[in-house]
Amino acid sequence: MTLRPRASGLSDVGVIRSHNEDCFEIDPELQIFVVADGMGGHSHGEIASRIAVEAIRDVVAKTADDDATLPFELDPRLGRHSNRLKAAIRIAHDRVLKAIRQDASLHGMGTTVVGMLLDRDSAAIAHVGDSRCYRLRGGKLELLTQDHTWVNEQVVAGFLSEEQARVHPLKNVVTRALGGDSQVDVDVREWQVAPGDVFLLCSDGLTTMLTDQDILERLRTTSQLEEVCGRLVRDANTRGGYDNVSVVLIRVEGSSDGGPDDDETAALPAAR
Ligand code: CA
Which CATH number fits domain 2-263: 3.60.40.10, 3.30.420.40, 1.25.40.10, 1.10.287.130? Predict the structure, then answer.
């Protein structure tokens, strides 16, 4: 069985904001998918999220060859794809910091990031901040990432309920971001991938407007990824669209080994 991703993404400024500081990347050939949500005054969030997304794609591309050396020491507990993704995010962080050092007016910019790098039947999923990854499998939606936010820390510690966290005035305070402290702590985990799995990467502009149940209902409506992306964004905007909203959907499709379609290099193009 050969697994291949089919993906679609959409980003929208929302109803209130004047700039879209989110950014996303879909590359089915490199099997990398990213959503970043920038922050900072003026339009600097846009710069931070774009630097991050481009850096991640760049490092993933440069390390695609199995012989390519990684810029950081390998973590032996993780597969090579997870090490690549983690290294890519750390380099993205360094590049955001470098841009700030080179131009003092960019001081204070930063970005969250969530990325997925596939390798055969394993997905490395890594994140920093409150951009999320969900997986739809067997009709069930599961959140695979834990927000790096002050409110989520309170939920984990038992001081706030999830519902209280959703409406808390400090719900937007992230505790980790690229471009913040000199070192960045990246969470990365590996997940087994099966045909039919659908992964959703999204910025908090989606999840502050729609509950997990809302998202599940929309994912179930059709198998057309483009249509689902459109519906998620439109409904976030209908509910108020307080923030930029970005979604990337990846469906893993399987084909039997030896079939005429069984060519790993012929990854389906992204429907953007
Ligand atoms: Ca946001």
Answer: 3.60.40.10
Instruction: Read off the pTM.
Output: 0.92
Q: Are 203 and 246 spatial neighbours (Cβ–Cβ below 8 Å)?
A: yes
3-class DSSP assignment, residue 161: coil
- Three-class SS state of 154: helix
Q: How many residues does the chain have?
A: 272
Angle at 238 between CA 237 and CA 240, to 5 degrees: 65
Residue 190 Cα to ligand 1 middle (Å): 25
Instruction: Encode pLDDT of 63-85 as tens digits.
Output: 999 888 888 888 999 999 999 99
Q: How far is the CA of 68 from the centre of ligand 1 (A)?
A: 35
Give ion ligand 1 contacts, CB < 5 A: 37, 203-205, 243
Phi and psi based region of residue 179 (left: phi greater than 0; alpha: psi -120 to 50; beta: remaining): left
Percent of the chain with pLDDT over 90: 82
